[in-house]
Amino acid sequence: MEIVSRLNQSRRYRCDIDIYPYMRDHHLEGKVILPAVESLIVLARAVKTNYPQVEISYLKSAGFPRFLPIAPDTTRQPVIVDLKNMDDGSIDASLLTSLKSKTGTISREVEHARAEFCVAGPKEFFMPPFRVVDKLRGDCISVPSITIYRELVPFGTAYQNITGDLSVASEGALAYISGGNRDADENLLGSPFPLDAIMHVACVWGQRFAGIVSFPVGFEKRIIYQKTKKREEYLGRVVPVSVTKELLIFDAWIYKDDVMCEYIKGVKMKDVTKGRMSPPDWIRKDSE
Prior knowledge:
Elements: E1 10-18, E2 27-28, E3 31-33, H1 36-50, E4 58-63, E5 69-70, E6 76-85, E7 91-100, E8 107-117, H2 130-133, E9 141-144, H3 145-152, E10 162-169, E11 172-178, H4 193-209, E12 215-224, E13 233-243, E14 248-256, E15 259-270
Antiparallel strand pairs: 1-6, 2-3, 3-5, 4-8, 4-12, 6-7, 7-8, 9-10, 10-11, 11-13, 12-15, 13-14, 14-15
């Protein structure tokens, strides 16, 4: 693949996503869907292939506008990644698939994920002391992970990476999370499983305090300070920063012991099922 070096030049990169068996544990309403965290790895790989000099540990303006469903017999999913080299040196990447009409005469492209990979940029942010992160104040309940994955986030085993009990209060939620133990690529952005589990933590908070089952639709910024690893345990913390009927926004942190691995600012969570999924009464604060 030719390396693109000129600014403001767009390049279309075609590749196949290997669909490993573990990915089929990620499903919604009877359909297997590509996890958002896996789509970020696909984008990062395309960026590194075409722009090997670009730093990929700082992402911003990410969005996941449409699910990418995986057919039952698919082992390789063809995708398109559009890349643009921006004036500031960052790379804008977008993951698309091409859909054909039933007659096969008309095709259109659908965007499933996008993110901007920044060469450099302001990295100032509020880093709460670890002694603050690992505590919750106020009326707090604990939800066992087995209950979470049976009743609140019903994914298969590969994506059951909240471990032990999740603590949830109005000011946020806190849980130990696993780096997983599957075939996922951990070399580019670290293991995808801790970030995926952080989104589950946010989903549980939304079910308790907002009364919706929400899924990630984007984030403002993700800074990877230390790549997470498979077979390791981490502490994840989410804090709600904006709550409306249409959208929940969280800030999140992933720690290994007292060392920060990732900061994810402005995680956007939304009820993409339009009410077809709803929280059980026992988790809802307004039902107590």
